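Q: I'm a student working through a structural biology exercise. My instructor gave each of us a protein and asked us to get a predicted structure, then write a short paragraph describing it. Mine is Histidine phosphatase family protein. I'm not confident about reading structure output yet, so if you can add a plain explanation after the tokens, that would really help. Here is the sequence I was given:
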Amino acid sequence: MATEVYLVRHGETMFNQLNKVQGWCDSPLTVKGINDLKRTASALSQVHFDNMYSSDLKRAIDTVHLMKNANVVSDIGKIRKLPEFREVFFGTFEGDDINKTWDQVAMAAGIGHEDDVAKIINQVGLRKFREAAKKADPRHLAEDKDELDERMVRAIQVLGDLTKNEQRVLLVSHGDFIKTLAIKYWDQSDGNHDILFPNNGSVTRGILHDNGKFEIVDYNMDANKL
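A: Happy to help. First, here is the predicted structure for Histidine phosphatase family protein. I'll explain a few features afterward.
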């Protein structure tokens, strides 16, 4: 049985608002973030889900509970937290200014000063961007492409095992992780260059097939398009 997966990006957080790097570190949802999520939750309130899942980071957990509380047609028990669906890890850069971080990554990639992540990826490709992030990180802890790809594959396997008897599930994850899933599993991505970063509270829809194959069929849908 194939499983339909609604991937929701968490709501805006304080670090999003302050333009800080936010991977495995956490910060609370803002008022705007909560209000945006209420619109998404309302749009999904009549969609039946067999289960709901979440990354194990608090901003995702808070988001999934907003989805659960607004849904009137699903009987959801305890939320299962999946660390495999955490945001990309940025190592020593966690909590730093985003523009300064991307400038350091650009220099490590050999393209001079550049604080726009999309432009960096389009110039050097995703693999070199991730390698540059690890190289620029003083402790070299940031996830590179191979490490992240291994975690994504494991995440899909874990989700497949959990949803064998579930037709439709909701899963709250994170912007860069969802974007990287789309680069790998969405046929509209060429797998090398940057694609649009998903909005806070947006929904990306995927299909997890019986044979373990995963494909994304809708990407970055806002509440008014659901």
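A: Here are two points you could use in your paragraph. Helices lie at 14-17, 31-43, 58-70, 98-108, 117-124, 126-136, 145-162, 175-185. The chain has two domains: 3-89+143-225, 90-142. It's a good idea to check both against the output above yourself.
Q: Great, thank you!
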